[in-house]
Design brief:
Largest sheet: 7 strands, mixed
Structural class: alpha/beta
Strand content: 15-25%
Number of strands: 7
Distance between the termini: 43 Å
Order of helices and strands: HEEHEHEHEHEEH
Length: 184
């Protein structure tokens, strides 16, 4: 029922799903570009069509007394950006304890323009030994799906530049806030 509802909302909104999420029990999904709160809504609907209940890293400031129950129900995990120590270990614990676990991370970590992407997703994927799936939403073409998938993560942190190339040509909701061409 949820899958059909999500498909209907996406269809009525003009969105098309270009790729199905891989049938794997555990993964990290890097979603890009992330320039609007709408990215969360469309991304959540995409995962609903796939029958996946992802966990999503959200800045802790959003977890107010009135929003916290809703965000947690939607799969939100608070990130304390002023004190990010322990986030990798916290996520590794989730991967170890769950039979199925999909973690969604936006490498920009904000909707504003950034000079470099965060590399936490790479560290978590490497330590948890899970695939890294690259998800994309292209607002110009109104398509969502996969940009690529990597079964293993090299030790080279410059690998983030390889990932950025997979998003060249993808149009963000606010294109001025997304640039996958820069170097780390």
């Amino acid at each position: 029922m949820k899958k059909r509802f999500a498909r209907l909302i996406l269809k009525l909104s003009g969105w098309q799903i270009s790729d199905q999420y891989p049938a794997i029990k555990k993964s990290i999904c890097i979603m890009a570009p992330h320039t609007s709160m709408w990215d969360f809504v469309w991304g959540k609907l995409y995962f609903m069509t796939q029958g996946i209940k992802p966990r999503i890293l959200i800045k802790s400031e959003m977890f107010t007394w009135y929003l916290s129950p809703l965000l947690k129900a939607l799969g939100g995990v608070p990130v304390y950006r002023k004190h990010p120590v322990g986030l990798v270990e916290q996520m590794l614990k989730y991967f170890e304890e769950a039979d199925e676990f999909t973690l969604v991370i936006t490498p920009e970590a904000t909707r504003k323009p950034v000079e470099k992407w965060k590399t936490g997703a790479l560290r978590i994927a490497k330590k948890a030994n899970v695939p890294l799936v690259l998800g994309k939403m292209d607002y110009k073409r109104k398509t969502m799906g996969l940009a690529n998938m990597y079964e293993s993560i090299p030790n080279d942190l410059d690998f983030i530049n390889t990932l950025k190339k997979d998003f060249i040509g993808v149009t963000a909701k606010h294109p001025e806030n997304f640039n996958p061409h820069y170097e780390q």
